[in-house]
Amino acid sequence: MKHFVLIALFSLLTTVASAAENPLDKGSVILEGSAFFTSQSGDAYIDSKTIIVNPGFSYFVSPGTFVGGLIQYGWYEVGSSSVTEYSLGPVLGYYFNTNKERPEPKGAAYPFVMAFAAYGGFDSELTLIQFGGQAGVTLMASNAVGVTFEARLSHDIWDSDEADSRSGLTFQIGFGLTSFIY
Fold first, then answer.
1. Cα separation of 156 and 44, whole Å?
2. What distance lies between CA 51 and its chain's CA centroid?
3. Helix, strand or coil for residue 137?
4. Which residues in the chain show pLDDT less than 50?
5. Which residues contact 171 (CB under 8 A, 6 or more apart)?
6. What's the rounded Cα separation, in Å, for the pair 165 and 152?
7. DSSP class of 172
8. Are 114 and 103 in contact (CB under 8 A)?
9. Residue 7 belongs to what H/E stretch?
10. What DSSP designation does 164 have?
11. What values do phi and psi take at 142, rounded to 5?
């Protein structure tokens, strides 16, 4: 049954995306994954270290404009304590097609901007509400796959049943792979 569902999902994605002629056209699908290096400030992040891994899925609703979702896994070490966070949320963004004259996407550079929000829980009694923006560029290594370099700024609100909520700003530099199905 699991294989049937995976085959059906893959068939649906490739059928929906097959009408697109360019990775940024309406109907294209983005599958991506990124890892981030983090700098944090505010009362929530005194003496902290963070690792963020961020897979996502998006769909182009018009040329360049995409909507989708992200899943975020974060490992936070604050002082002598550490917590693991899982969150998800929506994204809305735009890819700029600066290479319209190119006969194929391979070798193209596609800058983008994106807004996101996320809500998540931890392996403790904490919750995280996060919203922010992201900008970067995808350098196409083939006609369907690119390497992405990005910067992200978010406002984070940590809430606990046992203590007052805390907030802080997070600036992240990331890299990853982006696959376009079109």
1. 9
2. 14
3. strand
4. 4-6, 8-9, 11-17
5. 38, 39, 40, 151, 152, 153
6. 23
7. E
8. no
9. helix 2-17
10. -
11. -145, -170
Beta strand spans in 63-125 (E): 65-78, 81-95, 109-122
Number of domains in the chain: 1
pLDDT value for 39: 67
**pTM for the structure as a whole:** 0.81
pLDDT of residue 50: 81
pLDDT at 40: 67
Among 169, 177, 179, CA closest to 39: 169
Phi, psi of 42, deg, nearest 5: 110, 170
**Domain around 42:** 2-181
Pairwise CA distance, residues 114 & 65, whole Å: 10
Residues 19-63 pLDDT 10s: 578 899 999 999 999 999 886 666 666 667 788 899 999 999 999
* Domain CATH code at residue 111: 2.40.160.20
- HSE-up of residue 154 (Cα within 13 Å, Cβ side): 23
Residue type, 66: F
Tokens of 144: 């369907």
